[in-house]
Each structure stands twice: as C-alpha cells, then as structure tokens.
C-alpha cells in the first residue's frame, strides 16, 4: 500500500462536503434500546431497536438476510464486542453456515456493501472491523501486527461464532485469515477464500520483486519520514483527502465505475477518527509479519483463491501472484480462479463475478 501513497505527496486538493455518510458510531445515546451481554471472553454491547439487533452464537439474534447494502444501513445494524480491553465493531446477518468477512488495509465492514446481502440469503454472514479500522477502536500508540489481527479473528470465532466457519479475506485481511487458519485448532475454520492476498502487512515483505528492490531506499526514507510526527500528520491529512483517495482507488480498481462517492466515504470516515494516524504509521512502518509462502502448505482445508488480473499491489506476475498461481499444482485443496479486468478488491470491483465463482464453491463444501 505504501507504493500507492508516495504520489500523494504532490496532491493539493481541498475536499468538498459529502452528501453521503454522516459517520456516526453504530451505537448512540439516542438509540431507543440498549443492553449488555457477557460472553466467555469479553462482552457485547448493543444500542439499537430490538427488532434490528445483530447477533451471534453468544445469544443475540441475527438480522434478517438481504438489506440495501447502504453503508449507513450496514453500520446501523452492527454490534460491539469487547476484545481484550478494546471495542471491536462487527455485524451478523442472515441464517445458515457461517462466513466471516475480513477487509483489507484502510477498509471496513462497509467495503462488503455489495456482498453482505447476497451472501446472507444462504449463510450467516459475520463481518468485523479489524482493530485500527472502521468503527473499531484505534488505540493511540498501539503496535499493529498481522499476528495480532489473526488472534483477534480466532478469538472472535471462539467467542462469538462458535461454529466451523469459512473465512473470506481481501488483501491484508486475506493474510490475516491465512495466519488464523494455520493456527486454528478444534475445526473452527472449515474453508478459506482469499481475494488478492497480500504478501505482508506492508511492502517490506516483498523483497524479491525487482519493482520493490528498485525503490527500497525510498521505502526506508518513507518509513523514516512517517516516524516524524509532524510529517506523518501532514502526509496523512493529504492521503485522506477525497480526491487523493479517489485517485488511489481508481488505480487499484479495474471497474472504475465502482469507485463512487460512497466508497470514498467508507475509506475516509474512519480515517478522521482519533488514533487513525497512529494506526496508519504503525501499519506502514511495522514488521510485515508471516509470509504466506510458509503458511499455505500447512493448510489442509479447502481454499479458493480469487485474483483480479489488474491488481497493481499484488500483480499476477509478481512474487506473491506467481506463488499463488502455482499452488493448485502443488496443493490439491487449493483452487485458483483469475478474474479478468478486476483489480485489488474483487468483491467490490466486480461483485457479480465474485459471487458467480464463490457461491458454487461454498455450496460444494462438505457439511
């Protein structure tokens, strides 16, 4: 992701007001009803009308399938789970075998806006905001790691879902799912769907790509600058301007029409939260985390890999793309489908194409 941020240093856009999202927390003091439920690992808080309640195996009732896909409507049916001492935002909708959706860098539950309704017609769809993103807590000074996000996923499965689950991830969310699946015990992960899986939490993981080697000194300089608070703050303010975000998204989406004002607000809204700058700096400058090359051979569960062929972050001809392209010949549990004219975020870029490939694969999984 750092590669896409470097050009923003020269951007000079003054953002307009948005007609789309007044990004309120999912739970407000004005909500008509609220309650608190203890769980084995933490607690759940809810402040919504009871008929709109989102829930889990911990005792709440799942919201009905379908829905408009409007991020405001999606956020309005979320709940809060206490993980360790942090608040984690999540959603549950539909009925049937559980799926857990894990977003990528800078995204959130809202990035699954085009998928939740379709998937929840036959499945119980869970989605969560990783710590540091979306409406989840962004603790100042926190050190983010891939291993930490993977543990969050495992604890969520153990505490909330409590059933064998298919993990569906995009980008760094895919890698967090791979790590979680490789460490899972007790059969809580029954399948894995990877949408353009990242090679690490940041570009420093991909050291054998000539494109990375070419600008590696620039990446080191970038890390140094980000560790200077005034510079990091100025850069982050520039990055989260709407025009800058739009340009970044247009560079990573194959379907340019999918980059709409709604998507820009999904990314921008949480970036204005307290702690968002700390998360940005920690993720870009931190350790890249475990490499999928060492983890994938450990998995015996069914794996579906969907890869957009116009992805500039993890291109098919790069080391990560080449590795995943080779896996079906080496691991019989892995299926790869290349999606033409699709970028880094296939589920939002071309959701119809993703559903066409994903739904039959899900239906084929053993119960």
UniProtKB/TrEMBL annotation:
Domain AB hydrolase-1: start-end pairs: 99-355
GO molecular function terms listed in the Swiss-Prot or TrEMBL record: chlorophyllase activity
UniProt xrefs under Pfam families: Abhydrolase_6
Protein name: AB hydrolase-1 domain-containing protein
GO biological process: chlorophyll metabolic process
Domain of life, source organism: Eukaryota
Residue ranges of the TM segments: none
One GO cellular component term noted in the UniProt record for this chain: chloroplast
